[in-house]
Amino acid sequence: MEIIANRKKRQQKELKRLHILNCAENLMLQHGLDNISMNALAKEAKIAKGTLYLYFKDKEDVITHLTIIAREKLLDLFIEEASKQQDTLDKIEAIFWADFKFYQEYYLYFTLVSNYESNQHIVEEGDLFKSSQKIQVFILSILERARAEKKIKPTIDIASLSLTMWGTCNGMIQLMDTKFQLIKEHTQLDKVAFFRNFVNIIIDGIKQ
Q1: Half-sphere exposure (CA, 13 Å, Cβ side) for 121?
Q2: 81 vs 93: CA distance, rounded Å
Q3: CB neighbour list of residue 113: distance below 8 Å, 6 or more residues apart
Q4: How distant, in Å, are the alpha carbons of 26, 54, 62, 107 from that of 16?
Q5: Closest listed residue to residue 179, CA positions, set 70, 87, 187
Q6: What single DSSP character describes residue 33?
Q7: How far is 151 from 143, CA to CA, in rounded Å?
Q8: Which run of H or of E encompasses 190?
Q9: SS3 for 84?
């Protein structure tokens, strides 16, 4: 009986934690990341602020868990878009376009992921680290298959390529997000055309 009671208690605690995270997501989507606070979250979740601290130590802890959710959404999108393609080069290209879709359709989640990627003071560990590793493992699995099928140059180190894909893609999207008017003046291209040009350059550079 004691084991059953403890299990039920753990389940109730996990449900409460998920409820708080759902409320944090709602706050983010309705009011933006800057307006998430422990006071606002306690009010949204309809719990005492003291109870909130039993589940998350501070606002940064909440943001960390929202980032894990964002990365899970991104990975799901990678898997979904890559699964639509048969050719491995097309799968690699699909990953780039999935990131672009993530930026267009889930902008706040994209911002969460980008903020963590660019913040050098954050030490990734636990579930946050695992969420990053899952994305890396998925991308590497496609690159390994492409190399085995001789679709990409044999001289390319796929571990380096996976990080290059991640870094350049996010960097290019952030550049478009902040400097697109300047880009448009120089190229006369819209965002989709400019991004397509970027993807073509990468694919042409790696294919055999």
Answers
A1: 1
A2: 10
A3: 67, 70, 71, 74, 102, 170
A4: 15, 10, 14, 27
A5: 187
A6: G
A7: 9
A8: none
A9: coil
Distance of alpha carbon 68 from alpha carbon 128, whole angstroms: 6
- Tokens for 82? 């890559």
3 state SS of 53: coil
**Helical segments of 32-156, H only:** 38-45, 49-52, 59-83, 88-105, 107-118, 126-148
Q: Could you tell me which of 161, 172, 168 has the C-alpha nearest to residue 195?
A: 172
DSSP string, 119-152: -TTPPP-HHHHHHHHHHHHHHHHHHHHHHHTT-B
Structure tokens at 137: 């493992």
Residue pair 127/69 in contact (Cβ under 8 Å)? The answer is: no
Give residue for tokens 């006369």: 188
Rounded CA-CA distance 162/140 in Å is 6
| Interatomic CA distance for residues 206 and 72, integer angstroms | 27
pLDDT per residue as tens digits for the range 106-147? 999 999 888 877 665 666 788 889 999 999 999 999 999 999
Distance (Å, rounded) from C-alpha 144 to C-alpha 136? 12
Q: Which residue has the tokens 């979250």?
A: 41
pLDDT tens for residues 12-55?
889 999 999 999 999 998 988 888 999 999 999 999 999 999 99
Cβ pair 59, 38 in contact under 8 A: yes
